[in-house]
Amino acid sequence: MKKTKSCRICRYYELDENFCAVAPNYIGKAHLCADFELGIELDEEEEPIDLKIFTYEQFSKDYLEKLLSPYGKVEAERTLTIPPSPDIDLWFAPRVSELPQELGLLARLAKTRALLEPYHHPVTPDEVSASLIKLLEVQGEFHRAAEREQESLALDLPRLWILAPSISEETLMGYGAQASTEAEAGIYLMASAFKTGLVAIDELPNSKETLWLRLLGRGRVRHQAILELVALPAHHSLRSASLVLFYNLLAQLEALPEKDDEDCLLMELLVQHCEITYQ
What we know:
Layout: E1 3-5, E2 41-43, H1 51-68, E3 72-78, E4 88-94, H2 105-109, E5 114-118, H3 125-148, E6 159-164, H4 169-174, E7 178-179, E8 187-189, E9 196-200, H5 211-214, H6 219-231, H7 237-255, H8 261-273
Parallel strand pairs: 5-6, 6-9
Antiparallel strand pairs: 1-2, 3-4, 4-5, 7-8, 8-9
Helix pairs in contact: 1-7, 6-8, 7-8
C-alpha cells in the first residue's frame, strides 16, 4: 500500500513534505515540520483523528501528568520497544514511598509503577484488549531487563489502570472484572495475574477521595466535580494547577469547528465558575 506523509489531524499532505502528528499550539491546523524526524507516515486509508476526542483525552493526559509529576517519573505517549505497538498514554513510576493523601484515590492507584489509559468515552472491549497488549509488552521489557542483569524474576511488575467515564456491564463481564471489595464503588479488578483495574468514573462516590478522578468524567459527574474544585481554598495547590488546565481546555474547545450540548455546557460552566487565582 502506498504511504504518504500527512497531518494526522486534518489529513492534508503534499508529496515530499513532512508533518507533525500534532500541531503544537492549535490542534485545528496542520504544522509543517522543520525536522524530518518529526514526520509521521500514515496509510492513505487511515482515518483522521477525531478532534473532540483528541482534545478531551489530551487534557486527561496533561492533567494526570501535572498531578503526578512531582512524585515520580511521568512519560506521556511512551513508545514501546516492539513496533508497531501504539504508545502508552501515560506511564508513571513513583519516586516516593507514598503519594500525598490529598490525591485520594488517585494516590492509591499510582502507588506502584503503572500504565494509565484515560478515555473520554465508554471504553470498548477492543480498547481494553489494546491496553492489555501494552501492559504485557511493558512487563516483557521488565523480564528481559531482569534476565540481562541476572536478577530474580520475582519482579514488581507494573499495573494497568483504565479510566473511563463509564464501562458497560458487558465489557466488565467479558474480561471477568469484579467489583473491588477493598475500594470504593466503581473500581473493578481483573484476575490478579492480569494486574489490571478499570475505573468507572460515573460510579465513584462523591467524596474528596475521588474528586481528582471525577474531574475526568463527563456530564453531571464532571459538572459536580468542577464545582467542588472551585470551592476548595484558594491556596490549595492542586486547585490552581487544575484550573489552569481547565482554562487551557476551554480555549481548545472554543477552537473546535463543531460543538455539542455537552461541550457548550462545560464551556459555560468554566467561564462562570473557574476564575484562576494565584493567591
